[in-house]
Amino acid sequence: MNQSNLNLLKSQIDIDNLPKHIAIIMDGNGRWAKKRFMPRTFGHQEGMKRVVDIVEASTILGIEHLTLYAFSTENWKRPNTEIDGLMKILVTYIRNELDRIIENNVRIHILGDIAPFPQIVRDEIEKAIGETKNNNGMDLNIALNYGGRAEIIKGIKDILKDFELGRINLEDIDDQLFSQYLYTKGQPDPDLLIRPSGELRLSNFLLYQVAYTEFWYSDILWPDFYEDKLYEAILDYQKRDRRFGGI
Ligand code: IPE
Ligand code: IPE
Ligand code: MG
After folding, report:
1. Is 203 in the pocket of ligand 2 (CB under 6 A)?
2. Ligand 2 within 6 A of 27 CB?
3. Cα(75)–Cα(60) distance, rounded to whole angstroms?
4. How far apart are CA 232 and CA 56, in angstroms?
5. pLDDT at 43
């Protein structure tokens, strides 16, 4: 899309009705590479460039929370070479982008358990969290070794621990309290969930948080997901009538 069409599209967005929280299942890297007779990792590399673009576009637009699904608890089923490639790409992303992320006042959070990741990857992630923790612009949540079910089970265990320690009573446990035991604690539920690549499923993403989230699907593969697609999704979201069970 050329710049003037892009500006036209962007100008249609109602800035007063932006989704506060956008979540994206970044899918289709492998198929994008396969179409080009290239290894899957090539698709992940191109996908990383779209992460840079979409993070930038989201901060400029004024999105408050952006959650990106980068590696699921089920993705360990993939060949080691692909997993290694993804880890390297993650490290490269942080090394290349941290300065710009800090400049843009973005705060990095990780959703998921990174303990099984190689030390070098964890060091890089911890550094990114530490160096951005005082920023107060957009929250960038990166879901790594994330699974919605694992998150809910962890929440239940942590609640039980606090119950045993006498920190909470049974009557205290409600929707709001439970949210504080999830990786997204302190952040609103996603308003908009975007899934490219043509798959119409959640793949274990934010199971608890998406109760009233608006979905937007597209056949486009993630490496082709330029900022115009983000604007399209937001414009579509702005036409929705969110009733939350009301009339
Ligand atoms: C990227 O897309 C998602 C990750 C797990 C990193 P895929 O690697 O799932 O690509 P497809 O779905 O096989 O095309
Ligand atoms: C979901 O994509 C996980 C990420 C995007 C990180 P998958 O490619 O793993 O999902 P399935 O296997 O098609 O459901
Ligand atoms: Mg996939």
Report:
1. yes
2. yes
3. 31
4. 16
5. 98
Tell how far the Cα of 27 is from the centroid of ligand 1, in angstroms: 5
27 is catalytic: yes
Does an H or E element contain 64, and which? none
pLDDT at 54: 98
What does the pLDDT read at residue 53?
Answer: 98
Q: Output the DSSP codes for 3-31.
A: HHHHHHHHHTS-GGG--SEEEEE---HHH
Query: What are the residue ranges in the chain where pLDDT is below 50?
Result: none
State in Å: Cα 201 to ligand 2 middle.
9
> Which of 75, 135, 162, 224 does the annotation list as catalytic?
75
Question: In the prediction, which pLDDT does 168 show?
Answer: 97
Q: Which two tokens stand for residue 241?
A: 């009538």
The predicted pLDDT at position 8 comes to: 96
Q: Which atom of ligand 2 is nearest to the CA of 201?
A: 14
CA 62 to ligand 3 centroid distance, Å: 28
Ligand 2 atom nearest residue 71's Cα: 6
pLDDT of residue 101: 98
**Closest by Cα among 176, 173, 111, 182 to 153:** 182
- Taking the C-alpha atoms of residue 180 and residue 178, their distance in angstroms, rounded to an integer, is 5
136 classed as catalytic: no
Residue 201: CB within 6 Å of ligand 2?
A: yes
C-alpha 179, offset from chain centre: 17
> What is the pTM for the complete model shown?
0.98
Give whole-number Cα distances, 46 to 3, 108, 158, 229, 230, in Å: 21, 21, 38, 16, 17
Q: What is the DSSP letter of 167?
A: S
